[in-house]
Amino acid sequence: MSYVRLVNVTKKFGSVTAVDKLNLEINKGECFSMLGPSGCGKTTTLRMVAGFEDLDDGEIHVGERLLSAKRRNFYVPPEKRDFGMVFQAFAVWPHLSVYENVAFPLRLRKLSSQEIDARTKDALEHTNLLHVANDSPDSLSGGGKQRVALARALAINPDVMLLDEPLSSLDPHLREEMRFEIKDLQRHYGFTIIYVTHDQSEAMALSDRIMVMKNGVVQQIDTPFNVYTHPANKFVFSFIGLSNFTDVAAEDAKVYVKGSDLILPYSGEERGGLFTMATRPSEIDFVAEGGLRGEVVRRTYLGDIVDYSIKVGEQFLRVQKGRNDVRLNEGEICGLKFKHPFWYDAD
Amino acid sequence: MPVMKRRSFGVPEMLLFLSVAILVIVVAVPVLLILYTSFFVDGHFNAGQVMSILSEPDIYEALLNSLFIASGTCIMSTFIGTLFAWLVVRTDLPYKGFMKTLFLVPFMLPSFIGAIAWKMLLSPRSGYINILLMDLFNLEEPVFDIYGYGGIMAIETMYLFPFVFIQVCGALERMDPTLEESARISGASLLTITRKITLPLMAPSIMSGALLIVLYSMAHFGTVAVLGMENGIFNIPVLIYEKIHQSAGSFDSIRAGTVMAAVLIVSAAFIIWLQNKVLSRGRYQIIAGKSFRPMEVKLRGLRIPLFIFCLAYIGFTIVLPTVTIFLVGGLSTYGVDITWENLSLDNYKFILFEWDLTRDAIWNSVSLGLGAAVITMFAGVMISYVIVKMQVRGKGILEFLGMLPFSVPGSVIALGVILAWSGKFGINLYNTVWIILVSYIARYMAFSLKANSAALEQVHDSLVEAARACGAGMGQALKDIVLPLVRPGMFAAFFLIFLPAMRELTVSIMLYAPTTRTIGVAIYTLNEDGETVLSAALAGIALIIIVTGQSVIKYFQNRKAG
Lengths: 347, 562
Hints:
The complex is a heterodimer of chains A (347) and B (562).
Chain A: E1 2-13, E2 16-27, E3 31-35, H1 42-50, E4 57-62, E5 65-69, E6 74-75, E7 84-86, H2 98-108, H3 113-126, H4 142-154, E8 160-164, H5 172-189, E9 192-197, H6 200-206, E10 209-214, E11 217-222, H7 224-229, H8 234-239, E12 244-251, E13 254-257, E14 263-264, E15 273-279, E16 284-287, E17 292-302, E18 305-312, E19 315-322, E20 333-338, E21 342-345
Parallel strand pairs in A: 3-9, 3-10, 7-8, 8-9
Antiparallel strand pairs in A: 1-2, 1-4, 4-5, 5-6, 10-11, 12-13, 12-15, 13-14, 15-21, 16-20, 17-18, 17-20, 18-19
Helix pairs in contact in A: 2-3, 2-4, 3-4
Chain B: H1 11-39, E1 40-41, E2 44-45, H2 47-54, H3 57-90, H4 96-104, H5 111-122, H6 128-137, H7 149-174, H8 177-185, H9 190-218, H10 222-228, H11 236-247, H12 251-281, H13 303-328, H14 346-354, H15 356-389, H16 395-407, H17 410-420, H18 433-458, H19 461-469, H20 474-502, H21 506-511, H22 519-528, H23 532-561
Antiparallel strand pairs in B: 1-2
Helix pairs in contact in B: 1-12, 1-15, 1-16, 1-17, 3-4, 3-7, 3-9, 5-7, 5-10, 5-13, 7-9, 7-10, 8-9, 9-12, 11-12, 12-17, 13-23, 14-15, 14-23, 15-18, 15-20, 15-22, 16-18, 17-18, 18-20, 19-20, 20-23, 22-23
């Protein structure tokens, strides 16, 4: 039951293609995150959904409504789309009180004054702002301002909530708190969230599904679990979580660590020449017998985790173990066993 | 064992002492002398006499005129400045960047030259436009009369509106576009956003620009002096000038002048106070976030008409007067038709190479400008260094003293300098070129402090500390690290002083002697004496010097950026 539909959406800025033939279906009530490095096209996509950017090709539908269609030269301006949107820099109006900020979208809809008051207070209550309703938003902290922005977006009870890196201007601990608040609000109001972020842990924590983008092209759309455990390609692997990339070479049906005679256990499709093994530092075990031989060159305590740098041939691997696991000393020779290695073509 | 002893009077204290001394002598003493002379009679405080001077009919009238002209100019400039700023920053007007540059051109043109040009175009009897219209439509009466309040306000607006324009442009450009986008996604149309979000957020910038206009208009000499004489319209600076000029130094008229100057000082202080209040109350945090391009209002059908309107405005206010100046400067006598036969370069040759009066004036202005610029530039670096970088007590007073001339009108500075340097303290510079130099330094110190402070603030302390850690002494660090980094600021300060000094009128007119005319004084007096064509020719040459200088700055700034 797809609700928000993007069909072949394309956007160019001059000669740069910011978003290339994007097809996307988002379900009603879903929390959908767009994740990627800066300049990948995620914010541009969100702004096209919002209506701040026109398309160069394709169509955007929400429910039964067509919002943008380049070929038909059809375009609904942002003020007619009835979405809620929260921006990275809060964008609360400093010349209006908290109450007036939240009431603003309602006043524009020519509602009765009782209804405006009721819905404003409802939004303020659910964002814990009722006690500061008459204050200037400038007197609030960053978290407070972002709550005002959320309340303002909630006030019209939108079906779709667009969140453009809403937490990245906040302190780390506040960020986690606000994640849960957003999730709770979604449960209460039932809106669909389209969430733009460059922070993978934020996307993992909030979303039903994640889209990873790079250079305007979709790399993978899947659940947080699958994106982590079954990354579609090397870029997704490296973007989500910590990663090791080891250059390897196939010769005589055996796979060696490049530049050494160390043999890797390999069970994938048949390959020849140079390619890459991708591993997670937490998915490597130290074994006493067998395994890949390596030398501990650096050991760092990170509290709960002990971080090792292991020299394998001419290359280095990062391994992370719990503080209660086997401990190795710098200079020690160890055996490595890879739990779920991925194999990708060389760059 | 050698012990490092902390000297009680080291280099920092010496720099502070020097800085305070310079500012006190150049800035504080003249201003204080004005206040003292106006409020104290024979060493006793006497407010009654101040009131009786203020209620003299001509002074009272000058006060009212100043207020009236300033209000009218302020309203017109604020409207035009805000409109053009909005058009240039927030709409899809064609060639916006170029238009923005053009709207800033009046900043560098001297308004009294503009007033002279408009007098040639719109004076009721001989103005070219009036004559043209009367011929075309067989009218008996001239259509326009520039010699009235309306004319004065219109001309002042042409040259002062950029103060609002630049403030509002800056605020609009820096404003976080998501403030407007969030209103849009809330359902507001562009018109509603402009009315309910953009304008209220811009209000402090608009207000502060408007107050600046009031300040400058009240203190403005040139336009009123050129256009007001005919119908006996004068404001405070003009009356101060007349009192001082006609009285030949009688004490009564000097006292009347100081009382009026005191009025200007007090109103300037009030305006600055009000401006700070407006800005601090309305200093919203509206600058933030990653900026997508701010949205452009599509003008649709109005796009081309508004573009033509902007072009017409620029054509009428910048091109037309400038062309008029050069053409009239080429005529043999004022009033003859502008035809090829009547135009020649004779006037230009005459004033550049033959006539002592104008040659002296150009030489005086160039040497005064250079002298003031060099002295003020170096003094400015030193004082800025004390203010920005040194942890010494009492530097707040330096900041105050340095910025004071920004708000103190030129005629006040000139009068103060007369009081201070006419033998009162054993030095009499009156009627020499030196008194003009001293007053230029006082007038332009604030420019230098601003440019140099801005440059010094970019030099983070750690840069000097790193040099010290590498083994450089304080002097070495200053020479090798700080000076090279603030050189652009010094360079900017030099031109910020040299160029305005080239066209200075308000101060020089009060201080000149027969041999110490500046370009501005020469243009003004020639015009007063009816030597219209020579005055226009000299004005043309002044314009060439100013525009060339401005282009040199632009060239260096671009080279630095590129």
